[in-house]
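Case study B.
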Amino acid sequence: MKAAKFPLAYPTAGFGALLFVLGAMWYAASSQNSAAIYLLLFLLTSLFLVSIPNTLANLAGVTLRVESAKPTFEGDDVFFPVEIMNTSRAIRYGIEVFLPAPGKTRERVDCIPRKSAARLTLRFPAHHRGEYKIDKLHLTSCYPLGFVRASKRFVSNQSYLVYPKPSGNSQLPNNDSRLVDNSVQQGVGQGDDFAGVRGYVPGESQRHIDWKAVARGQPLMTKEFAAETKGAVCLDFSQLHFADVEEKLSQLTLWVIEAERARQPYGLRLPGVEISPALGQMHFHSCLRALSLFRA
Amino acid sequence: MSMSRNTSTSKSSIKRDTTIPRRPLLWMAAALLFTVPPFFDSLAVWVPWLFLFSLALKFWMEPRGYRLRSVILKLLLVTTAVMTAFFSYGSVKGVEAGITLLVVLASLKILEAHTAREFRVMVLIGWMLCLCGFFLSQDFTTSLCLLVAFALLAVALIQFHRGAAPGALWPPLVTASKLLLQASPLVILFFLLFPRINTGLRFELRPFHSANTGFSDRLSPGSIAALANSSEIAFRAEFPGSSTRPSGPMYWRGVVMWRCNGMEWRAPYEPRPKTSSNTADIAGSHSLTVQSPNPKEIQQRITLAPNGARWMFALDRPVKSVPGAMLARGEYLWSFQPIRKSRQYEVVSSESTGHDITAKERSDALEVPGSITPAVRDLAYAWTMHNRDARGIVTSALQFFRTQGFGYSLTPGEYHDLEEFLFRGRVGFCEHYATSFATLMRLAGIPARVVVGYLGGEYNDLGHFFLVRQADAHAWCEVWFPETGWTRVDPTAAVAPGRASLDLTTYLETRSISGQMGAGRNALIARLLRSGVVTNVRFVWQTLSYEWDTRLIAFDADVQDVFLSSMGIGSRGPLFLIVEILLIAIALLSAYFAWMQLRTRSRVDRVKAMYEYFCRKIARLGVPRDPSEGPLDFAQRASRSLPNESNRILQIVDTYILLRYAPQPAPGMLERFVKEVNAFSARTRH
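Model:
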């Protein structure tokens, strides 16, 4: 992660108010020719001036590392774990991470002890599907007085994926465009008979989460119910009859999730992209990735 | 880099801006308490109490989540406050009313504020209150309070920005002290050099109702006794240079009163300066005193406390006027402007009194009101009968006071006229004796006048100055003899012989009539104040206070001009000074930044640095280390590629591993490692 060599200092909103107070003091001092009021004026001025190098130095030796974010569905929040490392031999206070580009996110750590790191999560809503880059991040701090804000720019090459919003009909399409043979197999996912639990797949319906297990402190698990399922299903963009491309993508996304949950092999056919039927996390994410990056 | 994940770092919640955190609020409350004392002295009584009440109420409300939400209620409160201020002062103009308004609005703001952003506003309001405090008073105690308040506000702000970081008491205090320490050179720089431009915006402060302290231009029975319990400072006097403190009692001349009305005397409302012929005479008498056998000229540096009046004090008889004042008829200093802030001046006094008297002065000094009763006139005529010269008459009069059972008391009782005092009451304070003696002298045909000022003063060993308090106020007489001119006669000395050499409190104590100094408790406190340690503390405090007044408060725009001229940069103009200050300030701030960065930069690991140096050497020989390659793997690979150096490489890496991972590396191993790495490079270069 590339960082600007020197932090820059900007005045904050409080600076205007401070200027007003300093102006009042100056007026009072010069009109009264009073040394005591001049002393007060110069004390406050000097305190402010000295706070500038202090604020700048508060960022010295502090670096930032953005970790990779998990893909999110449109409408959900993107969570970016960030690690702030303090390599200096001083405690750093009031460090904020500011992400200007999507949605002006600001997160704050009150204190990072010397030679240690703090973690926080940048959270912002994912508006549209696609792949986005986080390029600019700012590490800022206005400690100790808050009249100036020191800001150090970091350039990151992290990117994040936003999958289309799953919506539409959750019933998997009847396999007109069957890819594999017609053989009937025992499918897991939809049905009435409890077949066990497996890890929760982000984006899928929360109806089947094993909440009792969550309450016991276990990770999110989805209960599966067995039913008879037919063979692999092909999810075909061209077969859908919505006018809007995004709507089609949303429907396909929902089906991908449902098919994965039902453990029914699925394939995806988009104009220019074809993914042959399979199951599993890798396949699941590559399908969603294709949907998210789709250009009409 | 060894990084430990710190899981305990507290992260503030996303919705931060809803409550003011408690710890900064506590600091803020402490700071605001320190801004209150000056308000108690000079504002209407309800104002500081309202301020304290709203501060307390805020602390009661904040943890309970109560808030001042209703706009109507807020408007109602503001209107009530403004109306009350208006009715207290009669107007909202004027400094006291303005400050009252500000304090009241600040109180309401404290009640109302409940977001983090408003906390900053409150700190700024606190700084404004410090400014208001300086408007009301600039004496040392108040200033100290206000400066403490200033610093505590900075602490509150620092604590606020620290958030939930551990440590509530010392860390923010230490940070604030560091900041103030770093700021101090800048403060001094600004204070000395920053051009104090007179913007032409000067506004005259209205006199405060409590501003007039000390005696008035009217001397009547009881007017000086009323000051006897006042410990307020009148002025401080130093004797700079070689001139030592005078040996005898110190009579500080304040004002000369000519107009006699029996027991009440008055000073001229607009005193006339000494006439030009007189000034010439003064010059003459001046040269005469130089030639005379005891040419005692005493130089003094007087620091006057603000008193709202125009008297300026000097020992015995000032010889020349001082800037901003004139030498009035009767040879006392009279300021052109009322003294509303601490003022310092140097004055030269002479022990010998003026020789000359004009016809006008003589007639003025002999004027007697018609209301004097025959008994009093007969007393004076009797003295003129028995004595041939003026000195004899004075001696007789003093003899009269000494022998006829006159008493000295702070609470002499009421007298309607001179006769009642001289023949029936016979208990009085200095003003009774001074006025009656001067009147009697006039009746006896001797020109006489009353002088009001101070007698004595407390010597401060530490600061080498005399502190004269209002309690030292005194009145005495001057009579004119043809041989010696105006001569001081203190009739009080005839009645109470020890008084002149002691200050009043000590005198009254030695006479064991301290019961008259108010209650007995006061006497106890007075005795306590005189005990060893307390006296020392008091002297230190007085000295600090004196330094504050003479060095800091006195350094106003005019003194700065003199200072700049003495530095040789007086004529360069304000722009030059500002540029110069800016350059120095920027240099200083950069130095601070560099120093702070250097001080906190992580130390370079020498072992690591040497190992990296070694790796670079090997890379130059054609075997670059892969970033993920451990030292052992790298050593083996390198020694395979460079069989000539294999032993050396393996040995260096062995030492490196020992230094890195052995629980306790042998002493001297690091030096050996450094030597080996350096030798390696030397060998390969050949």
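Chain A touches chain B through 64 residues (CB under 8 Å). The remaining cases will be described in the next quarterly update.
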